Amino acid sequence: MNSSIMDMKKEIEEYLSGYFKEKSGYDQIIYEAMSYSLNIGGKRIRPLLMLLTYSLYKKNYRDIIPIAAALEMIHTYSLIHDDLPAMDNDDLRRGNPTNHKVYGEAMAILAGDGLLSQAMNIMFEYAEKNPSSIKACSYISHMASCDGMIGGQVVDIISEGKSISEQQLKYMHSKKTGALIKAAVLSGAYLADAPEEDISKLKSYGEKLGLTFQIIDDILDVEGDTKILGKKTNSDAQNNKTTFVKLYGIAECKSISLRLTKECEDILCSINKDTVTLINLTKTLLNRKN
Ligand code: GRG
Questions:
Q1: The ligand 1 atom nearest the CA atom of 44
Q2: How far is the CA of 75 from the centre of ligand 1 (A)?
Q3: Cα–Cα dist 57/3, whole Å
Q4: By percentage, how much of the chain surpasses pLDDT 90?
Q5: Who's near 256: CB < 8 A, 6+ residues apart?
Q6: pLDDT at 279
Q7: Taking residues 112-125, what's their average pLDDT?
Q8: How many Å lie between the centroid of ligand 1 and the Cα of residue 85?
């Protein structure tokens, strides 16, 4: 990652690590549980995509860090819940024990709920002060709901142990993983009041990037190293899931992700703005090892 991306990441992390610091009371444990998963690692791809897209049009990305942090809270909540025994039953996340392994199942459920609610609080408070942000906040909320991420998770759960079609697999991932990635890009564009012509290009970029991200996630589940990945490998096979690797094979998945990354780059090049940093991040994601 280049230095401007590293700086942005650092600022996002400072905001997140300071967020629950002042909290105290008989319920303090919930703030500890939320902070634990929020601050034990993570690539921060979604907030970075939001800030970089916003930066194509506006100078001060710091203005929207609260919304970027809210999106990361929603993503972190989904990881906590996804790791629960009732879902994927994982012990390791972001290189550390999963939330329920540290705080117990009941508290992990509440930590996920708490992060989702806190994200909504942040967005409502921000929108109250900045009414033009309503479109972006509402879009993020929709993409986190059954119209997006939860809907995808539902298809994932009801498909376990069954063989599903390519169409169903794409539908599932466009919602489960793709929705928040598209939300990151488009909310950055909405917050910056980007022109309509660019919005439609960025929508297509976000969709292709989300699909690439998932295909690489499936490859890493097979070829990755647990130490670098920070989570268990071969989880898809153990949970009897249909994946892109199962459908196309590793070699074809690699060539599809290469082609999709090139298409993402072409879209970004067709936007009449300085998209170099966003292109670099997109290429970094293609070669990621975690
Ligand atoms: C509401 C009970 C209940 C459960 C919700 C919504 C949900 C469970 C799960 C969402 C689905 C999910 C976890 C999708 C995974 C998407 C994905 C590829 C995650 C990994 O993202 P990275 O690689 O992770 O960006 P880091 O740790 O780097 O942030």
A1: 29
A2: 6
A3: 20
A4: 94
A5: 215, 244, 248
A6: 97
A7: 98
A8: 15
Contact between 278 and 194 under an 8 Å Cβ cutoff? The reply is: no
Whether pLDDT at 11 is above 80 = yes
- What average pLDDT does range 28-46 have in this prediction? 97
User: What is the torsion angle, in degrees rounded to the nearest 10, for the CA atoms of residue 121, residue 17, residue 62 and residue 76?
Assistant: -60
Residues 232, 91: contact at Cβ < 8 Å? Answer: yes
So what's the pLDDT on residue 239? 84
CA distance 268 to 262: 10
Which residues surround ligand 1 with Cβ inside 6 Å? 42-43, 45, 75, 78-79, 81-82, 94, 149-150, 153, 176-177, 217
Instruction: Give the residue from 94, 68, 96, 98 showing the smallest Cα distance to 85.
Output: 98
Position 158 pLDDT exceeds 80? yes
